[in-house]
Every structure is written in structure tokens, then in C-alpha cells.
Amino acid sequence: MIYNFLNMDGYGLYVFSSFIFTLVSFAGLYLIIKSQLIKEQKKFKAKFGSLTVDKVSAARAQKTNKEILAAGIFSKI
Amino acid sequence: MKFFNQNKILNLSFRSQKIILIFFLLILSIGLFEALVLSPEDYLQGDAVRIMYVHVPAAWMSLGIFSFIAFLSVLVFIFKNKNFILIAKSIAPSGFIFNIIALVTGSIWGRPTWGTWWAWDARITSMLILALFYLMYLMAWRIFENKNYVLKVTSFIAIFGSINVPIVKFSVDWWSTLHQPSSVNLISKTTIHSSMLIPLSIMTAAFVLFSLLIFLMKYNTELIKIKNKGLDRL
């Protein structure tokens, strides 16, 4: 039964290679974008952490920074 | 314009990413089960028809996303809102991947049905041209550093490349090609049986969710990049 499913009357190689290519492409793109996001988040965290007290309050006042901080990603900041 | 407020989208996207990922995996699993197990084989193509469940949604998505990018590029010139171009930039990688998937799976599907991996027919060639436009669009963001210049170049590529979109869509009607005419139509009658239309719809929904997930992650990355530059200026 499993053999019949995998073989698909001789079309199994074509069908499964198409599906595997699609899933691998999805996984690849997801991992690339995720790693870019994490890299930028780390940069943000490092830069925010190195600011002086005055600059921190100025940065916190920036609306988008507020949103990033509120999202809980940079909990240590 | 408040709807396109960067902060609102950023806040919303942070919260919704995990939910979308879970929904995507769930719908993809159902779609794969429907496509590989439950859906019937074609009376002519046999089980090879199952490639349709990844090939067709990928082609639809790549066409739809490029059209959307071109539409956003036009809006940039009308409303002078650069957030539109940020949205366009963030959605482009998934469109490109869908285009590559459509080309590769189409090539794999062509072998058992047409007896060849590749043919220079109107549909396949115009899809390849679309992939080149995607590539030019993505490369332009990497190559040019001047903000105003890159905005103009990418908008030009998107608007000029959108001419190719109707060519892809109607190539099977305008020229004699190896491709069959469209089976799923919004205006005229859909000729595909529901036993195949259901898995096709589920897989399309999964692809839409994947695209949305990638868009949100990429959009967040771009916004944080902007904020990093802002922190440098403090």
C-alpha cells in the first residue's frame, strides 16, 4: 500500500519531487527571513543597550521604538 | 492613510506572526493530505495531475504579488507615501519564490505529460520573464544605495514589468501553446471538478498564509533596520 502510494503508477518521482521542492523552498525562505529579522533585532538590542540615559529616553519617545519594546522581544532593555 | 501607519502594522504583525504560522502549518497539512491522498487521479494524466496543487497556486501567487507590487508602486507616485514601497519590498521575496516554484514544478510536470522538461512556449517564456523582473526588482534594492534613486528604479521595474502580467495570463488564449486554457475562472464557468477544486483551494489558502507570514517578518525586519539607523543618529 505504501509502495503504491509512493510509486503513484510511475509518477511518484515527479509528484514528490515537486512537493519536496516546494516545501524546501518555503523552509529556506522562512529561515533566511527569520535570520535577517533576528540579526536586526540583535543589532537593535545592542545599540539600544549602549545608549546613555538621556539618549535612551529620547529613543523610547520614538513611537516605533515604543512598539518594538512593547512587543516584548527586547525584554532585557 | 492611517490604515497604513507603520507602527500599527508593526504592532499587529508582531502579535499575529505565530498565529499565522500555526494556521499556515495546519492548512498546509490538510492541503497536502487532500492533494496527495484524497483527490482523484486524472483520467488522462493519472497521478501526475497532483503536481497541479503546488504549481497552480504558486503561479497565481507570483502573478498576484507582482501585480500588487506594481499597484503599490503607482500609489507611491500618487500619494507620495513611502510606506507603500516598504510593503512592496517586503512582499517581493515570497513572490519571487512562488515564481521559481511555478517554473520548477511546471518543468517537472512537463516531463511526464509533454515528454520534455522545457519548451519555449508563450506561457513558460513569459513566466521566465516575470522571474527576471522579480530578480531585477530584488537586486535593485541591493545594488543602489541612494534612497530616492532606488525608489524610482524599483517602481519603474514593477510598473514596466506589470505589462508582462496580462501576457502571462492570456498567453494560452492568444497563442497556440503546450499549456491548456485556464480551468478555474472567476468570470466564466470553472471547468475543474470539485474533488480537485477543493484541494486546490486549500493549497492556495496555505500559500496565501505563507506569503502573509513572510511579508510580516520581512516588514518587521525593514522597520527595525530603519530604527537602527535612527538610533545611530541619536
What does this structure look like?
- The complex is a heterodimer of chains A (77) and B (234).
- In chain A, 79% of the residues lie in helices and 0% in strands.
- Chain A is mainly α and 77 residues long.
- The longest helix of chain A is centred in the middle third of the chain and has 38 residues.
- In chain A, 19% of the residues are buried.
- Chain A is rod-shaped and about 70 Å long.
- Chain A has one domain.
- Chain B is an all-alpha fold.
- Chain B has one domain.
- Helices cover 77% and strands 0% of the residues of chain B.
- In chain B, helix 2 crosses helix 5, helix 3 runs antiparallel to helix 4 and helix 4 packs antiparallel against helix 6.
- The longest helix of chain B has 39 residues.
- Chain B is globular, with a radius of gyration of 19 Å.
- The mean pLDDT of chain B is 88.
- Chains A and B meet through helix 2, helix 3 and helix 4 of A and helix 1, helix 2, helix 3 and helix 7 of B.
SSE arrangement:
The complex is a heterodimer of chains A (77) and B (234).
Chain A: H1 2-7, H2 12-49, H3 53-61, H4 63-70
Chain B: H1 6-38, H2 52-79, H3 83-114, H4 122-143, H5 147-161, H6 164-174, H7 194-232
Helix pairs in contact in B: 1-7, 2-3, 2-5, 2-7, 3-4, 3-7, 4-5, 4-6
Name the descriptors.
heterodimer; A: 77 residues; 4 helices; rod-shaped; B: 234 residues; mainly alpha; 7 helices
Strand content of chain B: under 5%
The major β-sheet of chain B equals:
none
How does the helix and strand content of chain A classify structurally? mainly alpha
Low-confidence stretches of chain A: 69-77
Distance between the termini of chain B: 28 Å
Query: How many individual domains of chain A?
Result: 1
Q: Average the pLDDT over all residues of chain A and give the rounded result.
A: 79
Shape of chain A: rod-shaped
Helix coverage percent of chain B: over 70%
Number of helices of chain A: 4
Q: Note the beta-strand portion of chain A.
A: under 5%
Q: Give me the number of helical elements of chain B.
A: 7
Characterize the biggest β-sheet of chain A: none
Helix/strand structural class of chain B? mainly alpha
Report the uncertain regions of chain B.
none
> Would you count the extended β strands of chain B for me?
0
